[in-house]
Amino acid sequence: MYVCFILKIKFMSKKLWKMGLLSVLKQSTVIHLIFAITFFTTGLITNFFQCLLYFGLRPFSRYCYRKINYYLCYSFYTQLVFLIEWWSGSDFILYMDRNDLEKHFGEEHGYILMNHSYEVDWLIGWVLCERKGILGNCKAYVKKSLQYIPTLGWGWKFSEYIFLERNWEKDKEIIRSQIREFGNYPDNISLLLCPEGTRITPQKLEASQKFAQKEGLPILKYHLTPRTKGFTASIPYMRDKIPAIYNMQVQFNSNDSVKPTITNLLLGKRILGHIYMQRIPMKEIPEDQEAAAEWLHKLYEKKDRMAESFEKTGDFFATSGVAKVNKITLKRRYYSLINTICWTVIVVVPMIYYLINLFLSGSTIYFSIGIGTIFLFYILMQKTIGISKISSSSSYGTGELK
């Protein structure tokens, strides 16, 4: 018994040591640097091939271009999915009708209306899309300025995201032409719209509530008043191409000690998201633009009740009046893990070999330039995956909103 006890103590000590080592590695700047270099380098490689295909193949065969671009995007995007699923061990719980999940979501073109309340809600949405096998064809409405950001922004440009200029006459035409193109895609796409236009903050919420009160619109507690123009302009071109709208509500428990931020994901801290998803057939959306705008406001009243219910009870359905649906847990796939490991080996091994040769050559200038370049990559990666922070600027409280 004494020997067994000693062996058990040794086993537990070894296990704790490994856990402690893993925790140290997850918070190590060197490891973050490796991730940054891999992410940014693979992004540039992806952008290079996207550029070649965009100008060399797309004019002759948009079908083939989009088919190949799907896999390029998937290989790049899954590195951020790896950050959530495998690096931080984060996950989500899905609340959705199982029949809609299995027979419709991912099996048809979908138009997703999502709240934008957190830094990483869009990443949690990417994890859901990855597990349904549609990550490579995720699209969104985004600011035009984001297309100039290296890697993600460039990749979105080559992937035909809808870039808006905040000029209604121009944006109306952009929306019309892009949505018509989406109907011709060889694989199913998911088009994301955050009607609030920006991530919520206390200052923006106050400005939004004042605006809603002045205009006689519903006053929301947990969301900004949705902007309806982009939505109502999109619907007429979707009716024959996109069969359903998906109402997506993402929430995190505000009492959790680990907040849903990109920094915490990089540090390997686990978060748990809750996603409510409802499929709404396109035929249920009014054809008249004013009626469609009113429909969107009513949807956001529902989303606000669900957010309030979750904040107060930890349950979407307790006080919201929304019909309860069962929890669904989707199993994570190994593709993001394998993909990230392969890219890390391809990028990091030659880099280390090159740095060692520079160091052995005795040229301190070249070696310093090499090290400086690596840290520059790290800074660029932080800026790039912090893209949701960049998009948080808003016109709430200014004349543009009026």
Automatic annotation (TrEMBL):
All copies of domain Phospholipid/glycerol acyltransferase, residue ranges: 110-232
Gene Ontology CC, one term: endomembrane system
SUPFAM superfamilies, A to Z: Glycerol-3-phosphate (1)-acyltransferase
Recorded family membership: Belongs to the 1-acyl-sn-glycerol-3-phosphate acyltransferase family.
TM annotation in the entry: 30-56, 68-89, 334-356, 362-381
Name assigned to this protein: 1-acyl-sn-glycerol-3-phosphate acyltransferase gamma
SMART domains named in the record: PlsC
Keyword flag Cell inner membrane: no
Species of origin: Apis mellifera (Honeybee)
Molecular-function annotations in GO: 1-acylglycerol-3-phosphate O-acyltransferase activity
InterPro entries per UniProt: Acyltransf_C, Plipid/glycerol_acylTrfase
Keyword terms: Acyltransferase, Membrane, Transferase, Transmembrane, Transmembrane helix
